[in-house]
Design a protein that fits this description.
The structure holds two protein chains of two kinds. By secondary structure, chain A is an alpha/beta fold. Chain A is 32% helix and 25% strand. The longest helix of chain B has 14 residues. Classes of the chains: A alpha/beta, B mainly beta.
């Protein structure tokens, strides 16, 4: 371990790498010269823009039991519990959209009676402390519960977002949805990363 | 010309940009600057995601993964989260360096492979009041209850987030979570599928290559393996000459996550490392009395962890975790082999509509074998200790969940200081959806480390007239009891809009019975004839500290985020004696940081960060300002390149001094290139 004994620090200045500035310029040039689309660039967006678009898609691929809407053109309520991570995104995505004759409407809810009137309820990660209370309280109501907390689907949530390699994927708890009388289309089940039940 | 480009439709911008860049290829640096200067307002594409099919949506890459604000808002503690985005933007290449962005923490580099990190005061090479966990595994060494940061490394791309709690976390985590808890959490294996190769080269500091591959063993069964190699040159001595503190390290590991049923999941993970490090040490002894030399340090270690989580019902779940950890460190002054076995059970359940209860039990066995030197002598060279603990915590929602009370305590028994109770009471009050207040009172203890109990360390030597050799020896004390902290904390969070947030925290901490160093009466030793002046270790020091931290985030536009933090600290020591770690324990009174992240067109991102750290008057370290800047660009889905500079303002500067004879070296200006390839 003990390599050499000496009492003075070595003299001399720092070693400089003259090769480096040249390499730096080459890389900078390469970064600017490559056209961005040359290598099959995938589109990009913020996490909650994508999740908002998914919520709209879920509304399209889920069938609610008869009686879930007061009439054929009643709005389809997409609700967010507690702190809204979407900002303007959810409003933008659902703006003037109609699904099976039902115009989409975004609402914010903080208690169970309000939540029971929703068709889709998003429970964000920040509300995970109340997650189980909410899921328990919605038992028997035909509300599609969507979350983005790791154990959400395992704990009885219906659809859970997961990030995989910077992409948004989702898991489905089919049993939970069926117990609530919701029918999730096979198209949605087919692309889910994991289907429980 | 650039503004002209901004007015064109997106497709034309792409073409035009290509033309500009081709025209300027003989002046690449100027071109980079031009790209930097493009304003965020001319960002190219705005697409309507609702027009995409489900399959296409699943292929959209998300650029801003920020769970920070959501998580922050609801904790009744001073918490700061470093996200994977923050890690990527920072350009930092090690865990201690990443912690520089956290308000309330002080991070200082002593030499090329030695860091001092502490929360809310008392920083030193042997800082011991911070608990650090990697995926639930405690990584401090029982030798001095601190962390060898050089061997805490990971594939940084696979880190999900680093949660830092300032202030006591002892009510859940137990002794030594006195003034902060750092939780490093890696991504689950399902979130790291596919291959990733990351290489870095830089002017002074390092060359590294890391590769990871993640795969699936069927639905719900995922794994990843990784390997990482790094070689760092030494930093520089104060006179600018190259130092002997270069190092190299190799590391490999795996993680596997299995969903074995709808309600059961298993995690198994482990990693193994080996490294060679250099340092220059000065040794005080009898003959010769002072000498200094380059020392080669060998480090080696590994760990294996398994965790089972079971969701019994929507209202109840539990986890059982066990790990084994072995570390070995051979250096001239002290060599040690430490083996740890740890078992932990936690249960979490809802009681009625208002209460959420957690409780847990844990057992830890630590065994170590030590080999000292003429300078560092341990009374016992073999030791085995047992730690038993349990905690209970209840979160009660009142006033329709607007007020949350969190009451809890840890109960612990260890072989050397016996039984300790560490309670805490916290409250979070949700004023409106935008304003939150919290307050907490906690008690935490720090059990004496092996060095404080058992060691005899020569810290200085000189000749007393008429020429008698005299040694000053720090003497450990096996009768030391735990240091205690009583902490009062409070905070306020304001989320003005989803783009503006402010987090303020303040604290008043009382430390009792701190381990202090008291000079004893000189003793004459006949053979060989010399005098020993003992520095005795006793629980005689008291201190109080107060201060606060602020963190402000502003998304100026959707493509430009700015974060500012500030930390304040005042320390008053009641007794004249300093703590043993405290031969040199000091934290700056003021720290600032400013970070800016700008998304530019053409998948370019520009990051700038400034850190200002106040002076350390006892150590005579002047204040310094550190400036880092980086530019990165993704070339398609698979390849990303970045270039950046660190410590751009000064050629080199000192940050901290060592207690135990390690020659401090200075941090240098550094320019790096990094390439990341996904396959």
């Amino acid at each position: 371990m003990w390599t050499e004994t000496r009492t003075e620090l070595p003299p001399g200045g720092m070693t400089r790498n003259v090769f480096f500035p040249g390499l730096l310029m080459v890389v900078l040039a390469a970064m600017s010269l490559f056209p961005a689309n040359a290598m099959g660039q995938s589109p990009s967006a913020t996490e909650y823009q994508v999740k908002a678009a998914f919520l709209y898609n879920f509304a399209k691929f889920v069938e609610w039991p008869p009686g879930s809407f007061p009439n054929a053109s009643a709005p389809l309520q997409i609700c967010v519990w507690g702190r809204d991570p979407f900002g303007q995104e959810l409003q933008d995505v659902t703006h003037e959209k109609i699904v099976n004759g039902h115009p989409l409407e975004v609402n914010h809810v903080v208690d169970l009676p309000q939540a029971r009137s929703c068709h889709v309820l998003f429970i964000p990660f920040s509300e995970k402390a109340q997650m189980k209370m909410i899921l328990e309280g919605l038992r028997g109501a035909s509300v599609l519960t969507v979350g983005d907390t790791r154990d959400f689907a395992a704990r009885g949530g219906m659809i859970n977002f997961v990030l995989d390699d910077d992409r948004v994927k989702f898991e489905v708890n089919r049993r939970a949805a069926e117990e609530a009388g919701l029918k999730i289309s096979s198209k949605l089940l087919g692309v889910a990363r994991l289907v429980i039940g | 010309m650039l503004w002209g480009v901004a007015g064109l439709p997106p497709e034309a911008q792409e073409d035009q940009m290509t033309i500009i860049t081709r025209g300027g290829k003989d002046k690449p640096i100027r071109l980079g600057l031009m790209l930097l200067l493009l304003s965020a307002g001319c960002f190219a594409q705005e697409r309507d995601l609702s027009q995409l099919s489900i399959e296409d949506l699943m292929n959209v890459k998300v650029t801003s993964v920020s769970k920070r604000e959501q998580k922050l808002g609801d904790s009744a503690a001073a918490i700061y989260v470093i996200s994977q985005e923050d890690i990527r933007h920072s350009g930092m290449t090690s865990i201690p360096e990443l912690l520089r962005m956290v308000p309330g923490l002080n991070v200082a580099q002593i030499d090329g492979n030695l860091w001092a990190v502490s929360s809310r005061g008392f920083n030193s090479q042997f800082a011991s009041d911070l608990l650090v966990l990697i995926d639930g595994r405690t990584v401090y060494t029982p030798l001095y209850s601190g962390v060898y940061w050089d061997v805490q490394d990971l594939m940084l791309e696979d880190v999900d987030r680093i949660e830092v709690i300032r202030g006591p976390g002892a009510a859940v985590w137990g002794a030594n979570a006195v003034n902060g808890v750092i939780n490093i959490i890696t991504k689950a294996a399902q979130d790291t599928q596919g291959g990733l190769l990351s290489t870095t080269a830089s002017t002074g500091e390092q060359r590294s290559a890391a590769v990871r591959y993640g795969g699936s063993l069927g639905a719900g069964r995922y794994f990843r393996v990784f390997g990482k190699f790094l070689k760092r040159d030494g930093l520089a001595y104060a006179d600018g000459s190259p130092s002997a503190d270069g190092w190299d390290a190799a590391r490999g590991g795996f993680r596997s996550d299995l969903q074995i049923s709808g309600s059961d999941s298993l995690t198994a993970q482990g990693d193994f490392y080996h490294g060679n490090e250099g340092q220059h040490v000065t040794v005080y002894a009898l003959d010769p009395m002072v000498y200094s030399a380059n020392d080669g340090v060998q480090v080696e270690g590994g760990n294996l962890l398994g965790r089972w989580k079971h969701v019994a019902s929507a209202r109840s779940d539990f986890s059982l975790q066990a790990y084994f950890d072995n570390t070995q460190r051979e250096e001239y002054l002290l060599s040690a082999r430490v083996s740890t076995f740890d078992l932990e059970f936690q249960h979490h359940r809802l009681l009625g509509q208002r209460q959420e209860m957690q409780w847990g039990l844990n057992y830890r066995r630590v065994e170590d074998v030590l080999r000292g030197s003429p300078t560092v002598i341990f009374a016992r060279t073999q030791d085995g200790t047992n730690l038993f603990g349990g905690f209970v915590q209840d979160e009660i929602g009142l006033l329709s969940h607007r007020l949350r009370l969190i009451l809890g305590s840890k109960f612990e028994h260890n072989d050397c200081t016996g039984f300790d109770i560490q309670p805490s009471a916290r409250a979070l009050f949700v004023l409106t959806s935008k304003h939150r207040l919290w307050a907490a009172v906690s008690r935490a203890v720090s059990t004496p480390s092996q060095a404080e109990r058992d060691s005899d360390v020569t810290v200085s030597s000189f000749l007393t007239p008429p020429g008698i050799a005299t040694l000053v020896n720090f003497m450990g004390n096996p009768r030391l009891f735990s240091e205690q902290l009583l902490a009062y904390e409070g905070g306020y969070r304001w989320e003005a809009t989803s783009r503006i947030s402010l987090d303020l925290a303040g604290f008043y901490d009382f430390y009792h019975d701190m381990d202090a160093v008291v000079p004893g009466s000189p003793v004459m030793i006949p053979v060989p004839p010399h005098i020993v002046i003992p520095l005795d270790s006793t629980n005689q020091s008291h201190a109080h500290t107060y201060g606060g931290e602020a963190a402000f985030n502003l998304d100026v536009t959707r493509f430009w985020r700015v974060s500012v933090t500030n930390s304040h600290l005042r320390v008053s020591q009641y007794s004249p004696w300093s703590t043993p770690a405290g031969l040199g324990s000091e934290s700056p009174e003021q720290q600032w940081s400013l970070r800016s992240n700008l998304h530019l067109p053409h998948h370019l991102e520009a990051d700038v960060a400034g850190y200002s750290v106040g002076r350390l008057s006892e150590q005579q370290i002047p204040s310094y300002t550190r400036l880092d800047a980086g530019l990165s660009r993704s070339l398609g889905e698979r390849l990303a390149l970045s270039v950046g500079g660190q410590n751009l303002l000064q050629g080199q500067h000192p940050e901290f001094r060592s207690v135990l004879g390690v020659t401090p070296t200075e941090v240098r200006r550094n320019v790096f290139l990094k390439a990341t390839w996904r396959f």
